[in-house]
Amino acid sequence: MKKKLVSNHYIQATLRGALKAGHCINPLLAQAGIPPELMDKPRARITEIQLANLIRAVWRTTGDEFMGLTASPCHLGVFELMAESVLHSKTLGGMLHQSARFYNRVQNEIAIVIQEQAETTDIELTLQHPEYDPDHLFQEYLLLMWQRFSCWLVNTQLTFIQTRFNYPQPPHIEEYPPMFGEHLLFSQPTAGFKLPTKLLSLPIVRDEDELALFLRQAPLEVLRRVGHDSSLHAQIRRLLYQKGLEQLPTLDEVADAFHMTTRTLRRKLKEEGGSYQQIKDRLRCDTAIRLLTDESLSIAEISQRTGFTEQAAFCRAFKNWTGVAPSAYSRR
């Protein structure tokens, strides 16, 4: 399975609390396998595993499950206690109500309110001191944690009616649909999500051994990007990935595959804020980063696999895409 990549934004956001507390960032980056050069390269990208390792490193170093992004710390192990306490709930609804009661009792940084109605159920998450979370990483993580943990407990990819955020749409908006799905609302009075009330009757199917594995891998299961992006951009990206990077189709050939004219394809991509060249560049860049971090391949071999006939041309393109040379990713 190919590893998913996330924006470099999450490096800075994850480290913010640790930096504020006076911790040195280089050991944290080293524990996560993230080259320090990427810190000030906004176009660079990292894998989900690297981000999960960075969060774990921050947890260990700060001793705070809230990563220094709240006014008061949260002891390590609180999520584990909550997870163990809800495992014996019979249904998803019981789990959600029990987890909300748990967190509302053991800490004062997050207020959780569940409003259950006939058709829909709303889970509202409020940070009492949002000024400690300027990048909104903690808010995103909490929403993602409750959604992904719910899906995992019932072993079903749940359909969420909406996920809302109480801040404006961010520059890295392309990261959101793979995490939260397509029904996103920004600049809302509160943060939270809605799901059909009928889903609350789904049974909890996980056991203690499975939970132990989930917790050992945390937060990787929370960060895995499982949402389905149906945008034209994403559809073209999947088509190109299937065809292989060595000889990518022309714009005319892609238009034919989607049964539209080249002019219409350009217009639709522009409406989504992109272009065919940007899709090709992003796909080649992401593939190169995966190969550099996952495989024992030379840069020459990677340049060939990503459709370049000359290594020098690949290196120039990669630095233009990410701001760093390929060797920055391969030095681990």
Automatic annotation (TrEMBL):
Residues that span the membrane, as ranges: none
Give the PANTHER family listed for this entry: HTH-TYPE TRANSCRIPTIONAL REGULATOR GADX, HTH-TYPE TRANSCRIPTIONAL REGULATOR VQSM
- Keyword Transcription attached: yes
Q: Which PROSITE patterns match?
A: HTH_ARAC_FAMILY_2 (PS01124)
Residues annotated as domain HTH araC/xylS-type: 234-332
> Which keywords has UniProt assigned to this entry?
DNA-binding, Transcription, Transcription regulation
Its Gene Ontology cellular component terms are: cytosol
Q: Name one GO molecular function term.
A: DNA-binding transcription factor activity
> What species is this protein from?
Neptunomonas concharum
> What InterPro entries does the record point to?
AraC-type_N, Homeodomain-like_sf, HTH_AraC, Tscrpt_reg_AraC-type_HTH
| UniProt protein name | AraC family transcriptional regulator
Q: Does the keyword Flavoprotein apply?
A: no
